[in-house]
Design a protein that fits this description.
Blueprint lengths: L9 H5 L15 H11 L13 E3 L6 H18 L13 E5 L2 H17 L4 H11 E3 L11 E6 L11 H10 L9 H11 L1 E12 L9 H10 L1 E7 L14 E7 L6 E5 L5 H11 L10 E3 L14 H13 L11 E4 L6 H4 E2 L11 E5 L15 E3 L17 H9 L1 H5 L2 H5 L20 E5 L1 E2 L5 E3 L4 E2 L3 E5 L5 H9 L1 H10 L8 E2 L2 H4 L12 H10 L5 H12 L3
Parallel strand pairs: 1-2, 1-4, 2-3, 4-5, 6-8, 12-17
Antiparallel strand pairs: 5-7, 6-7, 8-9, 10-18, 11-13, 12-13, 14-16, 14-18, 15-19
C-alpha cells in the first residue's frame, strides 16, 4: 500500500465535518481491553511506554484510551518515580483517531480529566488531549511515523454501508477490501502497514475474515509478511458493553516471522478464564486451559479452520488423503436453490387454477426438511423461465394466466434491482430456474442449522434459496447422506463454517465444497449398502460407526 499515490483529503470525501455520529461504534468491556493490552505487550514495567508510540485508529468515546493512558502514566512513575508533564516524549506517546466529531469530543474530555486527576495542569492536559486525539479518517490519513503499537476495536461497518465515493477510494488503497469484506479488514491492513519493525497490532474484531471468502486476501497478506502471535476466538461470548451479534476475536500480529502462535476459543470471559488465558498466552505458567501452541499457523493463507490442536491434525490428515466432495464421484455437484427477489410474488401458497400448471413447480423450503423425511408444505414456485436447455425467459404471450398474475404485481417487481438493471426482464427471478433440477434425485441441506440435517428428495421438488443441494452421477445419494450426517463431516463443517449466535453453523456451498469424503469408487459395495440402510435413521452412533469404516477406504 502506498498512500502517497492517493493524497485525497478525507474531508473532501466525507464532507468538512466528517461523521457527526459514531460510525460502527461498539464499545469493549474494560477487562477485555486489559487482556488485549497485555497480549500486545503494552505493560508499564518493561520498557518506557512514552518512547514506544501507540495508535488507536477508532477510539470512539475512549474505552481503550482510558486504559492506555493509565498504563502510560504508571510507566512514567515506574521508570522515573514521578511524572514530568513537560517531557516532550509524552507528546508523541499516543495517537488516536475517529471519524466522528462527537466521539472525538467525548474522548478528549475523558483523557483531559484523567490527566488532571493524575496531577497534570489544565493547560497541559488540554494540549495533550487535543494532540493525542484527532478527528480524521484513519484509512485516508497519512501518518508520519511507524508505531510500536496499533490497538483497538475497529468499526463494525459492512462495506455496502460506506458512502460510495469513500468506498471507491478504500478499494483503490487497500488490496484486502475484496468481495464483500467489512471495513475492519482495511483497518487491519493499514494498521499492519504502520507497524515498526518491532511493532504489534492488537485488535478485537469480527472473526469472519478467518474463514470467509472475503478474508482470503487478508489471510494471504498475514501469512506472507506477518506473524500471528495470538488468536483468541470469542464468538460464543459477549465481550462488548452492549449485547451485539458481532462474532468477535482477539487478533495480535507482529513482524517477527517464524515464531509460534497461541490460539484458542473461549466459552466464557469470567475473571478466572481471562486469567488463565493471560497466563497461558504469555507463557507465565502451563495451566490447563483453552489456549494451545501452534508451531505453524496456516502458512499458505488458507482459512483458519480451528484453534484445537487435535482437530487441526485430523483436518490436515483428511485434506492430505481424501478428495473434496465434488471430486469424490463423477458428476457430483453442489448448488443452491432459487432466490426470487420477491418471495411474496413468486411463492404461491398452493397450486392456482388461473395460472398455467407448467408454470408452477412444487417448492421445497428449509422448514420442510428432516433427516427422516420431507414434509412438503404445499407451496409452489412460479417459474418465468422456459423449460428448454437454454433456460431463457418465457414469452409472456404464451402464458396469459401467468402474465395476468405478474401484471398484478408489476409495480413491486419493477422496483427490484434485477428488474431495474434489465427492464425487459422485469418479471424474472434473481436466479435462473432450471426445471430439470426438480426431477433430479438430490440431497437438500438447510443453510443455517446445528444438527446435521440432510434431506433426500427423490426428484419431486425445486429447492428454495435457503437450501443447498447435491446431485451426483455416481454416488448412491442415501449412502452419501449417511456420510454427510456423520460426526466426521460435522467436525469439518464446524471448522470451515462461520458460527452463528447459539452455535448454529452455515452449510454454505463454499463450506460443502471443502468437505473431504472417501471416493465412492473405493468404498466396498457391502459398506455402501449399510450406509444406505442407516441414512434416514436416528441412531447417530450407528451412522458414525459406518462412516468411520467408509473413511478408512482411501
Amino acid at each position: 500500500m502506498t498512500l502517497e499515490l492517493f493524497p485525497t483529503d478525507w474531508q473532501a470525501l466525507w464532507g468538512p465535518s466528517g461523521a457527526a455520529e459514531p460510525v460502527g461504534a461498539i464499545f469493549t468491556k474494560p477487562e477485555i481491553v486489559e487482556l488485549i493490552l497485555d497480549l500486545a505487550g503494552y505493560e508499564p514495567t518493561g520498557s518506557r511506554l512514552a518512547t514506544r508510540p501507540l495508535l488507536e485508529p477508532s477510539c470512539g468515546d475512549g474505552a481503550f484510551l482510558a486504559l492506555v493512558v493509565r498504563r502510560l502514566l504508571e510507566s512514567e512513575r515506574h521508570h522515573h518515580g514521578s511524572i514530568c508533564w513537560a517531557d516532550a516524549a509524552l507528546d508523541g506517546a499516543v495517537r488516536a483517531a475517529d471519524i466522528s466529531r462527537q466521539a472525538v469530543t467525548s474522548a478528549r474530555v475523558l483523557v483531559r480529566e484523567l490527566l488532571e486527576r493524575a496531577g497534570c495542569e489544565s493547560a497541559r492536559a488540554l494540549l495533550l488531549s487535543t494532540t493525542w486525539i484527532v478527528q480524521t479518517d484513519f484509512l485516508l490519513r497519512e501518518w508520519p511515523t511507524p508505531f510500536e503499537f496499533v490497538v483497538g476495536n475497529p468499526p463494525y461497518v459492512r462495506i455496502e454501508d460506506v458512502p460510495r465515493q469513500v468506498l471507491s477510494r478504500y478499494r483503490a488503497l487497500f488490496a484486502t477490501t475484496t468481495d464483500r469484506a467489512d471495513l475492519y479488514v482495511a483497518f487491519i491492513e493499514k494498521g499492519l502497514d504502520l507497524l515498526s519493525t518491532t511493532g504489534t497490532l492488537a485488535f478485537i474484531c469480527a472473526n469472519r475474515f478467518a474463514k470467509n471468502k472475503y478474508g482470503n486476501a487478508l489471510r494471504q497478506l498475514i501469512a506472507a509478511r506477518y506473524h500471528v502471535r495470538h488468536y483468541v476466538n470469542l464468538e460464543h461470548t459477549q465481550p462488548f458493553i452492549s449485547d451485539v451479534s458481532a462474532y468477535p476475536a482477539i487478533l495480535v500480529l507482529d513482524r517477527i516471522r517464524g515464531e509460534t502462535t497461541h490460539a484458542g476459543s473461549l466459552d466464557d470471559i469470567d475473571a478466572h478464564t481471562l486469567g488463565v488465558v493471560r497466563s497461558q498466552a504469555l507463557g507465565q505458567d502451563q495451566l490447563a486451559g483453552p489456549i494451545r501452541e501452534f508451531k505453524e499457523w496456516y502458512p499458505s493463507g488458507a482459512p483458519w479452520m480451528t484453534t484445537c490442536g487435535v482437530e487441526h491434525a485430523m483436518l490436515t490428515a483428511l485434506n492430505e488423503s481424501l478428495p473434496t466432495l465434488e471430486d469424490s464421484g463423477d458428476g457430483t455437484k453442489v448448488g443452491i436453490g432459487v432466490a426470487t427477489g420477491s418471495d411474496a410474488v413468486f411463492i404461491l401458497d398452493g397450486k392456482r387454477t388461473d395460472i398455467e400448471e407448467s408454470r408452477q413447480l412444487p417448492l421445497l423450503l428449509a422448514a420442510n426438511v428432516t433427516n427422516a423425511e420431507l414434509r412438503w408444505s404445499g407451496r409452489y414456485l412460479l417459474n418465468p423461465f422456459e423449460d428448454d436447455p437454454d433456460g431463457g425467459l418465457a414469452d409472456l404471450r404464451d402464458y396469459p394466466g401467468m402474465t395476468a398474475y405478474l401484471e398484478q404485481h408489476d409495480a413491486l417487481l419493477r422496483k427490484r434491482h434485477v428488474a431495474r438493471s434489465r427492464p425487459n426482464a422485469w418479471y424474472r427471478t434473481i436466479d435462473r430456474i432450471w426445471p430439470s433440477l426438480q426431477h433430479r434425485p438430490k440431497l437438500v441441506i438447510p443453510d443455517i442449522q446445528s444438527a446435521s440435517v440432510i434431506g433426500f428428495d427423490e426428484g419431486r421438488y425445486y429447492p428454495h434459496h435457503n437450501l443447498y443441494w447435491i446431485t451426483s452421477n455416481t454416488w448412491p445419494l442415501l449412502a452419501l447422506k449417511a456420510l454427510l450426517r456423520s460426526s466426521l463431516v460435522y467436525s469439518q463443517i464446524r471448522a470451515y463454517s462461520v458460527q452463528m449466535r447459539g452455535g448454529s453453523l452455515r452449510y454454505q456451498a463454499q463450506t460443502l465444497r471443502r468437505v473431504r469424503v472417501p471416493c465412492i469408487a473405493n468404498i466396498p459395495d457391502a459398506v455402501v449398502e449399510k450406509l444406505i440402510a442407516v441414512a434416514q435413521k436416528a441412531d447417530q452412533g450407528e451412522i458414525d460407526e459406518l462412516a468411520t469404516e467408509a473413511f478408512s477406504f482411501r
